[in-house]
Amino acid sequence: MNEKNEEKNDQLESKKYKDEKIEKESQVTLDENGRNHKIHLITIVGEIEGHENAGNQSKVTKYELLLPQLASIEDSKEIDGVLLLLNTMGGDVEAGLAIAEMIASLSKPTVSLVLGGSHSIGVPIAVSSDYSFIVPTGTMVVHPVRMNGMVIGVPQTFNYFREVQNRITGFVCSHCKISKERYEELMMETEVLTKDVGSVLEGDEAVKEGIICSIGGISQAVAKLHELIDLKKENDATLMQF
């Protein structure tokens, strides 16, 4: 009887811990599947906050919290893979690229799922995983780099803009199937966004353009991550034999 009570208390404590983790950090480890895989779930929502604080009313993803978490995941022997859920308007370019580079450099299998949208600097984050999904109603907005505040109209400023844009384009095109030429065409489209430059791609379009791998939802994303984890474990076991 005591053993059953202890087991029940452990389950309640575990659930409480997970609920607190979700509430405070929008993160949780999924470990109740039948394949004994521990998947770390990360949500990237709202505005990606950089060196300056976003408005008090904004939902934000804080990169200074996410980067150490990603480093901890890489160092952990307990975590087998990472699932990213994205619904972001974009945000700080440098912060977004830092997050994307961290995800891309993880040795753990990673899968991303674009839900409502992954706009602007959210595009590099979406394609930084080993495999990406987007729901049919999901959207991605591709546009040139923008900057808030006063901009000094000198050649150095425009050169800086071009260099930043080239970094984003280079990262995206090296982590998905779209060509640099086609990505820049979408980025500079003038007939799609009212009073703006760029393109809005819905789920099927994002896949057809080669930015996202497949249409799918949470079940497909989780299944694919389990598949990648199994494959990595098989490869690791093979290497150990040698």
Question: Can you offer a commentary on this structure?
Answer:
The chain is of the alpha/beta class and 242 residues long. The protein is built from eight helices and nine strands. The strands form two sheets. Strands 1, 2, 3, 4, 5, 6 and 9 form a seven-stranded mixed sheet that branches. Strands 7-8 form a two-stranded antiparallel sheet. A hairpin with an 8-residue loop joins strand 1 (27-30) and strand 2 (39-49). The longest helix has 24 residues, at 2-25. It is globular, with a radius of gyration of 20 Å. Mean pLDDT is 83; it is low at 14-19.
List the helices and strands and how they pair.
Elements lengths: L1 H24 L1 E4 L8 E11 L10 E3 H13 L5 E11 L1 H12 L5 E9 L3 H6 L3 E4 L4 E4 L12 H20 L5 H8 L11 E4 H6 L5 E2 L2 H24 L1
Parallel strand pairs: 2-3, 2-4, 4-5, 5-6, 6-9
Antiparallel strand pairs: 1-2, 7-8
Question: How would you summarize what this structure contains?
Answer:
By secondary structure, the protein is of the alpha/beta class. 47% of the residues lie in helices and 21% in strands.
